[in-house]
Amino acid sequence: MSSLRQIAPAPAFEKDKPMLPLRCLGWRAVLLCFLVALFGNFCYAGTGTGFQPVNSAELSMTSEPAMPGASAIILYRQVDRDDGRGGHEDEYRRIKIFTDEGRKYADIEIPFVKEVFEVGDIHARSIAPDGTITNYEGKPLEKTIIKAKGLRILAKVLTLPNVQKGSIVEFYYRTNFRSDYAIYIGSHWILSEELFTKDARFSLKSYNPPYDKITLHWSWRGLPPGTSPPAEGSDKIIRLEAHNIPAFPIEDFMPPENELKSRVDFLYSWGDIQNDKDTFWKQIGQATYESVDKFIGKRGSVQWVVAQIVSPSDDSDTKLRKLYAKVQELRNTSYEYEKTEQEQKRAGRKSDKNVGDVWKHGGGDSEDLTLLYLAMVRDAGFEAYAVYLSDRENYFFDPAQMDAYRLDAGVVLVKFNGKDIFCDPGAAFAPFGLLPWYDTGVLGRRLDKDGGTWIKTPVPDSSVSQIIRKADLKANLEGDVEGKLTLTYTGLEALAKRTDQRHEDDQQRKKYLEEIVKSYISTGADVELVNQPDWKSSSSELTAEFKLKIPGWMTPAGKRILLPVGLFSSSEKGVFEHADRAYPIYYEFPFQKIDDLSIALPEGLTVVNLPPAKKRSGGAVAYELTAENKNNVLHISRVLRMEVVLVAADQYPALRGFYQYVRTGDDTQVMLQPQIAEASK
What we know:
Blueprint: H1 27-39, H2 56-60, E1 72-82, E2 88-97, E3 107-112, E4 117-127, E5 133-135, E6 141-148, E7 151-159, E8 168-177, H3 181-185, E9 187-190, E10 197-205, E11 214-221, E12 231-232, E13 237-245, E14 263-270, H4 277-296, H5 303-309, H6 316-329, E15 331-332, H7 341-347, H8 355-361, E16 363-364, H9 366-379, E17 383-389, E18 409-416, E19 419-423, E20 443-446, E21 453-456, E22 466-475, E23 481-490, H10 491-500, H11 506-520, E24 526-529, E25 541-550, E26 555-557, E27 560-564, E28 585-586, E29 591-600, E30 605-609, E31 614-617, E32 621-630, E33 633-642, E34 646-647, H12 652-666, E35 669-674, H13 675-680
Parallel strand pairs: 1-10, 15-16, 22-29
Antiparallel strand pairs: 1-2, 2-8, 3-7, 4-5, 4-8, 6-7, 9-14, 10-13, 11-14, 12-13, 17-18, 17-20, 18-19, 20-21, 22-23, 23-25, 24-25, 26-27, 27-35, 28-34, 29-33, 30-35, 31-32, 32-33
């Protein structure tokens, strides 16, 4: 059974599969989202046409009136795609360089995944302002650009020569898809680019096999003003022309780019397209339920396994947790680097046909493990359901779009003590009862034989996911502070750190944590990790201990000495400084940052003045800062709380004002004075 988060070559058609949208096939969801979100602007076409003629008007351009101040623009872009068996996509791009900064666009990266598609027939050249053409004669290098979540994305890398202000850079290549990749994940035209695009043309020759009825429908959003929607011609090719496509701005804490970019999406389905969304999702729910039910088998199929894990004397909560922990101990192939087909054959691993196979093989992909847990808790006597949902890392799901491919994650819903408990044992390091952030606050289809119902997963409040920084420090007369720092991540913060570092060794993890601590502090600091954090468990906490020294944290000001109270506040220094905002503000999850600092002052210094307490609470956000002195030991307490996930763009001024208040509080200082000066006075 395919994993919802695994990458593998696309399967051939299977005649006994239920009538589902062809992209409702796990691993392709995460792959597509990575490629569309990160590399949607590298799809190029034109291998059949070659380079365009040199244009004197383009060579003489010094700016673009529609995009004043731009370092470069895309003069022309063309995408031609064929989704037939052994399909391919050709794309061509011509870029005008206006400034020295724009010369960076002579460095080209073309992403690909070997198991899914290959890139070839690359041609590139630069044209100097005087019309001199320099062809790229080298061989593109190959490097890894993403290596995470069981995902390995490579890139062909090349740098064009003789590029200067006023040059034109152009290149084209072909992407060859393996098997029926194109129809399993669909086709997409991403119009929005980092650069302003003057003219663009797109075409798609759809997949149309003789032995199966395949239907295609397409939708679009955010097309530039005056752009006619894509239409199919008499030759059965769908085309689109667009002009003056605005550059796509990047902002901090913005929603998924897939939700914001101008785009056209194509979806293939077996059989006829269902126009009524309720009927569509009922059919999808029934078909998926049958597939899940077949994989799980009859009630009691893993009763003998359950009996090995729990005892009759265990209470219900203990049983659920024991079963969860046992499933998470099994091998999770979705979190391993992808193996080639040859490596898989050498490993002798057969595909799992049911949950019994998963247990027998000692593991499986993330969906296999999730369904094994579902079977276990049912056989332990609990009411439980499979829920398929759409994560919000790459899209915001809308059932009206009738795109089953976006139901790309599976979790288990357990009814217990009148509450709904959502569990995802297939998510490595996820504590019992806590979903990964991207699966919180989203719609999901709770499956049953009648097609299921829509439910929404909960968003944990900010107290679940904390960054707690407790420091016990001493200051000296040279202005340094040093001592012990205990850093604790809880909930989703801990889960994110463990997931991010799961493939790294102890030395890299040590460096990772030390760099994080340094990023919290606005000046240089000496940081050394002194314990061994628990990286392998699904504990709700991840704790790290450090030796910390911050040279010159206290600074002289005349006869006084100033000690800033915002020791770990560097992360908030540059947040939301711009007066204007284009997009909503989007946080992954609610969080709290809690600082508890004790700083023992040296003999010879005394506190002259403490900053006043700061407190602001707006329901969804809160900030509190206090500084106290007891027996020449400063105690500084700071709490920053964020309860929201999405803030509308028109609320940006209020949120920006809140962070300005936070920075004002963090910038306050304790005023100290040498005791000698006080006695002399």
